[in-house]
Every structure is written in structure tokens, then in C-alpha cells.
Amino acid sequence: MKDQYDVVIIGGAVIGSAVAYYLAANPDFDGSVLVVERDPTYLKAATSLSSSSIRTQFSNPINVKISQYGSEVIRNFGEMMQVGDDRPDLGFHSGGYLFLASTPEQVQILKENHEAQISCGADVVLWDSAALVNAFPHLNVADIELASYGRSGEGWFNNTGLMYGFKNKARSLGVDYVTDEAVAIGRDGDTVTSVTLKSGAVVKAGTIVNASGPRAALTARMAGLDIPVEPRKRTLFVFDCAHTPEGTAAVNQGRLPLMIDPSGVFCRPEGRFFLTGCPPVEDPAVDWDDFEPRYEEFEEIIWPALAERSPQFEAIKVVNQWAGHYDFNTLDHNLVVGRHPVVRNFLFANGFSGHGLQQGPAAGRGVSELITYGEYRTLDLTEVGYERIVENRPFLEKAVI
């Protein structure tokens, strides 16, 4: 590690490593990059504990386009991230997403979302209950008025594979990584100047990128700034099914999608098991070190909803569970990417609210373009910039899970 870098990135999981990769891979960028990561095991990183899925079924065109680019990167990941003979395989499972609507309000949202998705070229179809049960015969569709199904470009993949792919490639291109923790940020007027590490080292910085996940607000405060991001706990459960419906679908070679029930409970295949979770009834901010699962959610919320949705989900048992953190943007549940409007050399890549893995490639590319060119050159992310935080102007997304 040197004592001065053109760019210092605080946080080395998928977002920070994506920014580092896109900088280092760009021939127009000739600067030095340091990534500071407090826990190189990534055992408690939001990246490692996520459900690692990607979808194009959002309500805002910019979010659709962000995920379309993420899907493109996942498809070409082995070639993009090859280091020597190592071509990382993310094991992408093209299962699609299936949103179910049972109320007039939910139906209207699906229809409006579909218009936005189709306008971006997303491969999404709307089905009535008859078409739905023909595609997925195991489902009880008596209360379902409309369904939205992604036929391609959606699915799930290896979460840590994405992160380590970006990290390993970035390091091979000359990016430095250090195991340490940022404890202070130097600032001279409207310019950040340095990062002080827990080890005592002080690193001068031309630009600082906040890629701190659920700890984003802590990093921002070191620079005298603020961002409305806090850790919110989400518990995931893996269950075994006595009579699995996987393989019974009349579409996609029998494979089941990631289904979002009208109750908010979601469920998808996970090898021979299933992965499931739900929005908590109460959703307070939690301590940054609180990873105790909410065990009661399975018996009280998830199992009743799944058993009602399919007879084949009546006899199931939990075989594993864990809790992770959303880097939850309390303003509007959407990513915040871009420069601070006053402290221009401090950039945000935060607040992904559970979508960091799928949005990481586009966010990393966008931040790298701002640093290299002073503007976006590919996908314009201005709509999700920090200015809306200052103005208290939410950028609403209706399709939040």
C-alpha cells in the first residue's frame, strides 16, 4: 500500500470491487486505486448473505436498464473476468421471476410496471389465472387476478462468485486491496483529502468512493456528510419439500421461477431445496453486528402463505436459515449513485436496498465513468443521484421485494 492514491474506495464487496474493476479496465483511466475492506472473509457482507437474484421486473425504466446490463455482464462474466486460465462461472440459473397479484391495486401496479418493462425491451409477459395454472399446475390460483412472468434475463447465480470475480480481475489489473478499516476522512473545505485507517495509516486521496454497504452512513459522517441508509435485517430460510413441484412447470423446461406471492412471501428453487423469505412485519434499523435470524417468520408468515399457494408446500421443513442486512435507503428504497453536489470528489454507491448484486455492474461502471470522464458515457444514472437526497425528492420504485 502506498501513502497516496488517485481513488480510495471504502468497501471491497461487490459494489466497491465493481467500481475498482471498471476503473482499472478502462484504458482512459491511468490513475491508482486502493480498496479498503474491513473483513476480507466477507462472512457478514450483504453480498455474501443475499439471495443473489436478478430481475428486469421493475417499475422504473432506469432500474430495468440497470438490471439488463447486469444480466449481460453475468452472461459474459467468464470472459470478462478471466485471469490466466481461471474463467469464473456464476452458475446462472435462468428461472425467471413470477409476480402474483390478487387485488385491484396489485393488478394495476403489474400493468403499469409491464408498460415500463416492455418499453425497455424486457422479455416479460402478463398472464391471467388460466394461463398461470397452465404454466405452473402446482399453484392454487383461485385468488389470482394477474401474473407477470419474466421469460428470459432473470434468475439467480453465485453471489460470492460475482464479487470475487470483480475483485480478482481488479487486482490483476493493478488495484491494491488492504485489510483495514476507515476511521476518519480528512476534509479541506469542499474537498475530501485523505482516509485514516484503524491501523494508524493515513492515505491521501484524490477521490473517495463510499461503497460501504449497510455502513454507508458511518462512512459519510466521517466526511461531515449524510446519507439515509441504515441496516435492515432480512432472514432467509432454506426448506426441504416432501413432494417437490420443481420439474412440473409447462414452461422453461419444467423449472420453477422465483415466485412473489401477493402476501410478499417469495420462494425459489435452491438445488434440491427451496429458498424463501418475506418482508418483516416490523422493520426497524438494527445494529450493524446483529445477524440473529428471525426464526418466527417461517412459522407465522412464510409457511401459511406457501401452503395456501400450493398443496405441495404443505409438507416442508427448514434445513437452514441465516440473516443478512439490506443497505436500506429510507427515502425511497433505491440506489444512490453519484457525486456529492458540494464535496465533488466524494462519490456515493449506496442504498441498494437488497438489489446490490444485480445493480453492481451498472453502478460500478457509472461511478468509474464519473471519475474518468466527469460524466456518464453509457447508462445515465442522474435520476438516482445524491441531489434527490438533498431535495428530499423520492425516486419511487413500486416493485420492491
Describe this structure in words.
28% of the residues lie in helices and 26% in strands. The chain contains 10 helices and 18 strands. It has helices at 14-25, 61-75, 77-80, 104-119, 129-135, 159-172, 216-222, 296-309, 356-373, 387-390, and strands at residues 4-10, 33-37, 53-54, 97-101, 124-127, 146-150, 155-156, 176-179, 182-188, 191-197, 202-210, 229-241, 258-260, 266-270, 273-277, 316-329, 336-339, 346-350. The protein is globular. The model has no long low-confidence stretch (mean pLDDT 96).
Give a quick set of tags describing it.
401 residues; alpha/beta; eight-stranded mixed beta sheet; 10 helices; 26% strand; globular; FAD/NAD-bd_sf
Order of helices and strands: EHEEHHEHEHEEHEEEEHEEEEHEEEHH
Uncertain regions spanning at least 5 consecutive residues: none
Q: How confident overall, as mean pLDDT?
A: 96
Helix fraction by DSSP (H/I, runs of at least 4): 25-40%
Radius of gyration: 21 Å
Count, helices: 10
Percent in strands: 25-35%
Give the oligomer, counting copies of the same chain as homo and different chains as hetero.
single chain
Biggest pleated sheet: 8 strands, mixed
Number of strands: 18
EC number: 1.-.-.-
InterPro entries: FAD-dep_OxRdtase, FAD/NAD-bd_sf
Keywords: Membrane, Oxidoreductase, Plasmid, Transmembrane, Transmembrane helix
Enzyme class: oxidoreductase
